[in-house]
Design brief:
heterodimer, A: mainly beta, seven-stranded mixed sheet, four-stranded antiparallel sheet, 11 strands, B: five-stranded mixed sheet
């Protein structure tokens, strides 16, 4: 039982490149979210999903796309990376019934 | 809207000192309240939670009480250890989302 798996753990991109951060969960949770963590800013919500086929924007969605074709997977796409997207990205999932959220180990992204 | 105000860090304490990290929130509805902890290089993990007014969440010697009248959920520990060095996040949840504070970095020195 892996819980929440994020890949890759580390990534360096050049400005303008695209990439997809993967998030997979095996807990059959409906709710999934992507956060970015920056020094002094805490965790800020990028996008979230309340079930397969349903996504919505969070606090800082610009420059990111998401889709949710299955319950298990919630990939985050950067279409044209910018240095301002250098951050640590966390995926989280929960069942939507006010129980705890489970987090992946994070992806440390550097855009040069 | 929903927001969280958390005590700014960093906080440095000597081992066995008393710890308080303040957290107040604004939220629509009646949130459940959580404290998460992040150890260096890791993701966040649940420390404790409380789901209704006057509930006390506790774990690993940490405690926090849900104070609806003051919209607060302050984290306390009577005697910190070096192993408690981490970043602590307060996070209300109204059902749709978790809202995180900025985090408070704690360093405990021997």
């Amino acid at each position: 039982n892996a819980g929440v798996t994020q890949t890759p753990k580390f990534q360096v991109l050049k400005t303008g490149q695209s990439m997809t951060l993967q998030c997979a969960q095996d807990m059959n949770h409906e709710y999934m979210s992507w956060y970015r963590q920056d020094p002094g800013m805490g965790l800020r919500l990028i996008h979230y999903s309340v079930g397969a086929g349903i996504t919505d924007q969070g606090e800082v969605p610009n420059g990111y796309n998401v889709s949710r074709s299955t319950t298990e997977d919630f990939p985050l796409r950067l279409l044209s990376a910018a240095p301002s997207q250098t951050s640590v990205y966390f995926c989280a999932t929960w069942d939507g019934v006010i129980t705890e959220a489970f987090f992946g180990q994070g992806t440390r992204l550097t855009v040069v | 809207g929903n927001s969280v105000t958390q005590m700014e860090g960093p906080v440095t304490l000597s081992e066995e000192a008393f710890l308080t990290i303040n957290c107040t929130y604004t939220a629509t509805g009646y949130p459940s309240l959580f404290w998460y902890v992040q150890y260096p290089g890791e993701g966040l993990q649940l420390l404790l939670k409380a789901t209704k007014a006057d509930d006390k969440g506790s774990n690993k010697g940490f405690e926090a009480t849900y104070r609806k009248e003051t919209t607060s959920f302050h984290l306390e520990k009577g005697s910190v250890q070096v192993s408690d060095s981490a970043v602590y996040f307060c996070a209300p949840n109204t059902g749709n989302q978790f809202y995180f504070g900025t985090g408070t970095s704690l360093t405990v020195i021997p």
